[in-house]
Fold each of these.
Amino acid sequence: MKKDRLTTLTSITSFIISLFIYGALQSFDYSKTSKLILIIAMLLSGLSATYFSYAQHFKSTQKTKYFSLLILFGGLLISLYSGIILYLFIAFKNFGA
Amino acid sequence: MKSCFYSISFLLTLSAFILAPNSSSAKILFDNTPPNRIFQDQYWYRQATQVLDGTGPNLGNTGNNFGSRSQLASITVYLKTNPSTKETYGNCLLYARVTTSGKNFFSTNLSKVPFSALPTDEYKPFTFAFDNTSTSTTVNFAGGEKIQNIFIEEDYGSCGGFGFGSQAFFELGGTDQNPSNILFWYADPSTNFTSSNVMATRIEDLENTKIPILFIPGILGTEIAENDELLWANPKMTIPANSDNFMDPLSFTSLLKPTSNSTRYTNVIKTISATIGGIELELFDYTSGLISEFTDQGYTENQNFFTFPYDWRYGVSGIIDQSNNKTNVNLLQEKITEILNITGSNKINIIAHSNGGLLLKKYVLENPSSHSVNKAVLLGVPNTGAPKAIKVLLEGDNFGVVGLSDEEMKKIALNLPVVYDLTPSQTYYNAKGSFYNLTQEKFLKPPTTQDLNFNEVWDNLLNQKGYNQTAFENSALLHSPEFDNADLRNYGIDLYNIVGCKKATLGKIQEYQYTNLLGETSTSYKAPIFVPGDGTVPLESATNLPTSQNNKFYALKADHGKMPSQNGIRQKVVNILTDSSLETPSLSQNESDCKLNGRAISVYSPVNIEAYDQMGNRAGFAEDGSVENNIPNAELSIFGHVKFIFLPEDENQVYNIRLKGTGEGTFTLTSLNIENNAPKTTEVFSNIPVTMNLKAELNTEDSKLTLDTDGNNMPDQTINPSSVLSPETATDILPPVSTSTIVGTKGNENFYLSNILVLLSATDTISSISPASDILKINYQLDNSPWQSASTSSISLEVTQETEHVLKFFSTDKAGNNEAIKQIKFTIDKTPPEFLIGFNLTKKDLEFKTQNTLDTLQDQDSRIVATDKAGNKAEILFKEKNRKQNSRAEIIALSYNNKSANITKTVFKTSWNLDKKGVLKSLEQHARSKKDFNLELHFENNKTKLTGRDQHGKINKILTGLKTFELKTLAGDFEWNILP
């Protein structure tokens, strides 16, 4: 498989995985620990989608350029989203009056 | 009349039962084993002891569908009574009554049981039979009919016509080993009953017989909102670089009233959670875990488990409504009354956390005979206060929440009664000693230090710092010795105390004040003293509660704010209140397990600090001062510019401490080793230079500090501690004092007319509470050169350069105390002034100047003295005693600072004549230097003749008009010029 194609496939797969995790979190009631693990996984897959789509974007043909850009912003959005949730968790971890 | 029994019945109400398939009997078992609400082997397992004292509820019309059953033969119930009832009412008989669809069926006379037959120690089965002798004793079921109630009742007639009301009781139940049961025997055992007939509602009804539980939260434990906006605890507070001033309405005025009339409290915090994009994440669990644990035991919120939300800002002493002096204590009383009414119970069990415990104590003391409290479990209650409350007043606190502004919390705390209620009381001081040390240093005066007593602390806080006098007075009134030392057991309360003890907890604040030359005072703080506790409440305060040793528990991994739901603690609370036996990890009843063992590390800015244990867990500060702490029982805090970490070493943990420069300057690190609460050695790394690039690592095993000064992750230098202190000298808190002496020729003011030696000497200050650790080094900086230090208590510096100098210096003792920087200014000026000598045509006389207009000149006719600002002198002596009168002058001596210059080869003579009108008629001058020139000047008839030679050769000129020499002295020689 060509390297470019592998990069594209990785970015799309990562993005789909992150969306899948997001959907799962919306649909099911997980324990706090499971939620955290899933959110970390979502962050990683979001970052992965961002990274690989960024790498791909500049090599893309005109036809696929917009698609890779879409994945890039989607990945960024989901990374930001899961990052905020993780930050909030960390922010309250040591709360104690 | 059997019907009269209804009115005096002691009711056992059972409105459902299990019908076992292929069996002629059904059993309801009573069992202690938790969880007590399971269906197992076709039996419902229930709470063991059900006191039937006539006050229990009638459970109403629920029941089982008996299908096509035709007849009940008997029921067997396991019963027991108490000795006094047995003795008093021994002849009274008990019988069973079963109701179906409005019909009542009574067990036979022969099967009645006297109280005297009931055991008092363990349950025994008693069978009540139903026969076919009458319609009232034959329990016939029509198809689809239900048993509604089963009563075990007293036979009114057997007691001589009177009942014994609630005094008499029997118990129905059993134990784990020998579960009691009620057996239902049917006349038609082949009937096919199924377990699907079980009525679960009966169980919930019986729950109401549990003693209700009320949870009283502590400070910050109840949500407070303004209109629709949640002020506390809003996750918005975590937004970085946010002033958090949306919480301003939480503050009070100096009159101890809310600044916003729109604030209101809502619910006790269960969890702090955030929902983002549809996903809810629980961020912090305050009571949710505890409530779940009770729910598992069959409790239901707002039926028999309640929480008491209140406006914690008022604390215990704050007046909520001035018109009727209503306080949170009154609200607690109302809440308890309400709960008793709802549940029909006459007593209540209490769980109180932190400030909630103070509320409970006050409530009991105000209602000594009507408090209705049965059991009370106190969690981390600051009975005599906590020094951390003063820290919140002085510096604020982010309570461990990343992003929460210390400054905002400080602002809010200023006038909150609750903060003052939680400050250490006089009782705390009496038991524990001073919780506040004040070191003062004034410009050019030796520093002093003292441990303040209770009144002195408040004099400092109220009169010098302007905190709220009324709030303090209210708090002092609250914390009377009677309150602080109250023994709640004397009020009939079964009291339990759970305290946290293995966390380093603020025990003593150490303030440092410096007053400069202008009388301006600045305040900073030294590393505080830490004691065992739960991170907020010192053990000393939490255990100042008379409790039997069996009822006192030490939580070895407690974190004050999380105690209600913390693992181990919540199970213990449940065990105490429900007779359960859940596992309670990390709880001890041995106070010696509480001793602190570990390392207390303090760093003085500008560095950030973080620690990693051997498992890779991190504890450290973020740039904004917030804390991340993943090391169990570690404690981190910031006090002023001191960052502090306590790292436990109970289990031989080894830590890697990492430092990162955050600015320019120096930092000092102290590492105190604590064993069994007692300080051992203290390693001090003093005044290490720091830049933004600095990275450093301290390994607690070898106590060496490795510096990576350029931040390239390669070690550049490894240093040993500057000093290692014994426990005695480690308490040195006073900075040393340095003095300076200048040796040299003193001129005017700060001027020196020679090279000088500056002698610096330092002495470590000593006081009754601050021993001398001795001088480590003297640090000094001359002008703008880099700081230098000398590891000695005295040093002399030679200064030769002629200019104005500034010498800054301070000394450091071995405990790492730095004195405030002192500075002296002095100017070395070794150069005397030189003269400019000319002839003034107007005055018809010689005229004397110096190059510096600030110099002073004295013309004493035959003696001219020039003095510069420093005090350097130059002096010319003329041959003529009366220069002006004789119209001639010849220099015969020239001296500098009273040292004569050699002028044997030099000449300067001037003579002049005036005509009768006083007009200059002629003038002659002769000037000769040591080697450059020898010139004569003659003026007459408006012409000036200049003859002689200079360094360029011979000169022979006739010039028009008057020309005169301007002679400049130069270290005993002359330079010449001609004027004009």
Amino acid sequence: MTRDMAFFEFLLRMGDNTLVLGHRVSEWCGHAPVLEEDIALANTALDLIGQTQMWLGLAGEVEGQGRSADDLAMLRDAWDFRNVLLAEQPNGDFGQTMMRQYLFDQAHVLLLEKLAGSSDERVAAIAAKSVKEVAYHVERSRDTVIGLGDGTSESHRRMQAALDLLWPYAGEMFTDDEVSGIMAGEGIAPEPSSLRAAWDAAVQQTMSEATLVIPDSDFAHAGGKTGFRHTEHLGHMLTQMQWLQRAYPGARW
Amino acid sequence: MSSPNSAYPDTPEQAMKPKRHEWPLWEVFIRGQHGMSHRHVGSLHAPDADMAVKNARDVYTRRNEGVSIWVVEARHIAASSPSEKGPLYEPSESKVYRHPTFFDIPEEVGAM
């Protein structure tokens, strides 16, 4: 694998994570339990979509085939997506959404902090801009996980169920492979495994405050960021997200 | 009055009568980019002060409106009563001499 091929794959991983999770979060718009959460979730979704434009924009540039961020977002099928499986999992109830958000945000902020010092100036610039947004995301999702986990018996039960359900999807964020090896060698991005200890420490602290028990298992689903096998949920999501561009190719505002 | 726990609909407080559970109401004050003082911009619901600040950030500063947020639970605000308008405010209407418009302000004082 050449450096540029690996770089393109890496940028797709970054941009597809924010695109898919951003779309998922946007599904709450108009449906959240209270108005304040509705607006907060919409803000988070918009932050993530904004980051997607930067990551996929750079991906198209690196690929050099003339594809724009929009082309990459709207005209690829499920097997070409490189997001982690966690991002595409359905919203479930509000607690499940916030648990997914926290597990992702906590890894996201650690990664972006490192990427701000990337050897590639464009990556460093995108990360520096994104990390301020994501620092707020993780603060908010962490507080909500703690508030609901350490809340009532009903909210506690739902948050524990969410953690049990999503835990096997967390490990994929920290697996290394050929792509990450080349990125680390070039000084563009750290090996994902190097972030695991800090993530574990932060998540343990949060779950302990939330009175939630982390499942005693290291089993991790894989196949999202390599594109080997996404869960069935991604395809369903894309039929909604991409419908307009598929039905009316080239349609613009 | 509502307590933080009433934020959670299934928290048993009184077994007897069902009551409407809501997060307490908070009044939000924002200091703008160039403003010297915080101004009241609206209100919102939140379970505690910390979340009220976060909600205020999300609801009232999305368009770069502010650099500082204050929140205060609405029940802590003491307000004058509209029915006392007469005694409270009308007496000052006839006292124009209280406006500092009868002095010449020296140039060197500058803007006041």
